[in-house]
């Protein structure tokens, strides 16, 4: 018998292209994932994908089950939402703040999908906050905050969305473009282009420059990612951004990117919510949709490995 967990595993394998990352996505060990797939192949009497290919290449039987998954899993999600709605308990408000200038690429499709499927939930992204968004969340002025900087606040839960690597964008003619990675000292004589936010919220400072006690020669700010890329491409400075935010510009051969440090720097993006809304059906659906949308539209991200709990 084919089970829903089998279909979800195949979808994860298709989207990640590897057994290791698919196992992370569905929260299994690689051994457990391999066992589940072999069990499924035994049930259907066919191999589902070709081993030792990257990305994974599916057989005709595997493609047939993927088509089934694409048909059934959305229907299951829709039924779950309808059942929650029939219970009459699904009313709520989702006012959110975004501490991430480049989040709209995946967040707006998430919000649009959610709005269409949960008309009972009031959704808004108010602008012009004159307060710390996480403190506003704790005071019930907001209901969700997208952040990469979780703070220990009583009653706040941090649901991990995905992990991402920070890369340094440089002009194609820049000397750094030929390097595999740069050290913090290399930025001491560079102009660093950043979003106009506090340096304590920028990974390039907190994880890379500050620990080495290095400061760039100059800081220049820009509001929009495309403006930052124009400055970088014209040799006006360098810029640290999430790998997925650079994908479009790298594919167009507009700029180059190098790792920050030999091992790179990785961060986790979270959805901060209050504990009392954590287990509501509509909030769980929003978080799940956000994760699925992120992995569908972004490149270079990885599943988060653990929940972020508040430390009261």
TrEMBL record:
InterPro entries: LysR_HTH_N, LysR_subst-bd, MetR_PBP2, WH-like_DNA-bd_sf, WH_DNA-bd_sf. Residues 2-59 form the HTH lysR-type domain. The keyword Transcription regulation applies. Transmembrane segments: none annotated. It holds the Pfam family LysR_substrate. It is found in: Cytoplasm. It comes from the Bacteria. Coiled coil: none annotated. Keywords: Activator, Amino-acid biosynthesis, Cytoplasm, DNA-binding, Methionine biosynthesis, Repressor, Transcription, Transcription regulation. Belongs to the LysR transcriptional regulatory family. This is HTH-type transcriptional regulator MetR. The lineage of its organism: Bacteria, Pseudomonadati, Pseudomonadota, Gammaproteobacteria, Oceanospirillales.
């Amino acid at each position: 018998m084919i089970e829903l967990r089998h279909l979800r595993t195949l979808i994860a394998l298709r989207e990640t292209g590897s057994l290791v990352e698919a196992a992370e996505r569905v929260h299994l060990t690689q051994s457990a994932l391999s066992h589940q797939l072999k069990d499924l192949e035994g049930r259907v009497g066919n191999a589902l994908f070709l081993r030792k290919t990257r990305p994974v290449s599916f057989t005709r039987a595997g493609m047939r089950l993927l088509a089934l998954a694409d048909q059934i899993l959305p229907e299951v999600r829709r039924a779950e939402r309808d059942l929650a709605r029939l219970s009459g308990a699904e009313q709520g408000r989702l006012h959110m703040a975004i501490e991430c200038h480049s989040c709209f690429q995946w967040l707006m499709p998430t919000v649009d999908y959610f709005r269409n499927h949960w008309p009972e939930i009031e959704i808004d992204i108010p602008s012009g906050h004159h307060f710390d968004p996480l403190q506003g969340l704790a005071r019930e002025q907001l209901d969700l905050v997208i952040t990469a900087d979780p703070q220990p606040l009583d009653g706040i839960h941090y649901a991990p969305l995905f992990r991402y690597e920070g890369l340094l964008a440089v002009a194609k003619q820049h000397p750094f473009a030929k390097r595999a990675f740069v050290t913090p000292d290399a930025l001491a004589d560079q102009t660093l282009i950043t979003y106009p936010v506090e340096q304590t919220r920028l990974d390039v400072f907190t994880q890379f420059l500050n620990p080495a006690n290095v400061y760039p020669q100059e800081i220049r700010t820009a509001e929009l990612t495309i403006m930052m890329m124009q400055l970088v491409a014209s040799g006006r400075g360098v810029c640290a951004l999430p790998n997925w935010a650079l994908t479009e510009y790298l594919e167009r051969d507009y700029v180059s990117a190098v790792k920050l440090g030999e091992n790179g720097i990785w961060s986790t993006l979270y959805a901060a919510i209050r504990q009392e809304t954590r287990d509501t059906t509509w909030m769980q659906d929003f978080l799940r949709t956000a994760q699925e949308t992120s992995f569908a539209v972004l490149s270079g991200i990885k599943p988060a490995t653990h929940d972020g709990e508040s430390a009261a």
